[in-house]
């Protein structure tokens, strides 16, 4: 399973009402560090299928959600559990660091 895309319109159904924890990757096309971590997130989404969902939200196209959760720089990853944000990670990281963070929060 690959990462999923979410929007301002589908965020509630995709993320807030999810039965499993969701990591939301707030990103943009022009963001170099966002492109660096994208393949890592794809791999982690496959490796952790069923335990955690990874959703991507383009901040240029979906500003309301980014503003609501205080996203000021990208990439920003926010872990949601039971419809609530429980942890946040800002900036690009190595795959191993992302795996540890997601595993500990999930």
> Which residues form runs of ≥5 with pLDDT under 50?
none
Percent strand:
25-35%
What is the CA-CA span between the terminal residues?
Answer: 17 Å
Estimated structural class: alpha/beta
Taking the sheet with the most strands, its summary is: 5 strands, mixed
Describe the global form. Answer: globular
Q: What is the helix content?
A: 25-40%
- Helix/strand order, N-terminal first: EHEHEHEEH
Number of strands: 5
Oligomer: single chain
Mean pLDDT score:
95
Q: Number of helical segments?
A: 4
Strand arrangement within the widest β-sheet reads: 1-3-2-4-5
Q: Give the C-alpha Rg.
A: 12 Å
Would you mind describing this structure in some detail?
The protein has helices at 11-16, 32-47, 63-68, 95-105; strands at residues 4-5, 22-27, 53-58, 76-81, 84-90. The chain is an alpha/beta fold. A five-stranded mixed sheet has the order 1-3-2-4-5. The longest helix has 16 residues, at 32-47. 32% of the residues are buried.
